[in-house]
Amino acid sequence: MNIQVYQSFLTVVQCRSFTQAAKYLNFTQPTISNHINALEEEYGVILFTRDGKNVYLTQAGKNFVPIAQQLMADYQKSQEVMRQFQKKNYSLKIGVSTQGINFYLLPVLLKLKKEFPELDIEVNRCMTVESTINDAFVQKLYDFAFVHIDVQPLYTKRVQLWNQPMVFVASKELYEQMGENNNIYDYPFISYPASEVYYKHLKSKVDFTRLQSILTFSDSESVLMAVEQNLGIALIPRVKVRKELEQGTLVEFPVKYSGNMPISVLYDYEFNFTLPTKRFLELLKESQEKIKG
């Protein structure tokens, strides 16, 4: 039953008139009549007797007054309690250990923002997995930490979300210069300094000691720029170069050199979920299932 019908009932009681109640509530008189009829049909009683313009409460109506007053009081109390939560400025702070995670994360955040337009979302790229974990669980800077290796600190919960394909790529120009050679060991190699993080999942497939490293960069943007300038090949998340591969400006080497890097989300075991952060975790799991499907 709509709470408004109880307000209409109490206003008629106060004004002793359907017409005056309608004016007070800025309704039409038929609307007030419909509200009272709805109550009478709901409870199977007559609440008012009418004698011309005069309106009188029946015994059922008199007994219903304190009930309606309590219902209105409870409703107003619920509004006050919920309003306290509405006034809060909810935020979502995220730390990511590698920029490639954002390609998977962004669609989830866009959906979340549509559902919670006032939600303040902040995503920070950390330099290493270790710094991501430290900032999230020691410094308490983030609500969620996204990492790209299998790691789970004490007193945290971990949900593995996506497997990020890592592929070796070369510019089309360099690939043609090398006679479309598919042997990665014949190419100059653009590397990262933290090989134990970026390459650990390919150690069974690739002998990194045989690669001819000519340049080392700490970030994937610089590595990709070097590849696009025909300086060498590099190991890149496929999602980061999907457009270039489709356009043919970059060439992907055979799958025997490729591998998957797991991406997981970590959060404190005793994390105090709000409605937006709870929904965020639900959307992450939905995204996981969608990608698997």
Automatic annotation (TrEMBL):
<dbReference type="InterPro" id="IPR011991">
    <property type="entry name" value="ArsR-like_HTH"/>
</dbReference>
<dbReference type="Pfam" id="PF03466">
    <property type="entry name" value="LysR_substrate"/>
</dbReference>
<dbReference type="InterPro" id="IPR036390">
    <property type="entry name" value="WH_DNA-bd_sf"/>
</dbReference>
<keyword id="KW-0804">Transcription</keyword>
<protein>
    <submittedName>
        <fullName>Transcriptional regulator, LysR family</fullName>
    </submittedName>
</protein>
<dbReference type="InterPro" id="IPR036388">
    <property type="entry name" value="WH-like_DNA-bd_sf"/>
</dbReference>
<dbReference type="GO" id="GO:0000976">
    <property type="term" value="F:transcription cis-regulatory region binding"/>
</dbReference>
<dbReference type="GO" id="GO:0003700">
    <property type="term" value="F:DNA-binding transcription factor activity"/>
</dbReference>
<feature type="domain" description="HTH lysR-type">
    <location>
        <begin position="1"/>
        <end position="58"/>
    </location>
</feature>
<keyword id="KW-0238">DNA-binding</keyword>
<comment type="similarity">
    <text>Belongs to the LysR transcriptional regulatory family.</text>
</comment>
<keyword id="KW-0805">Transcription regulation</keyword>
<dbReference type="InterPro" id="IPR000847">
    <property type="entry name" value="LysR_HTH_N"/>
</dbReference>
<dbReference type="Pfam" id="PF00126">
    <property type="entry name" value="HTH_1"/>
</dbReference>
<dbReference type="InterPro" id="IPR005119">
    <property type="entry name" value="LysR_subst-bd"/>
</dbReference>
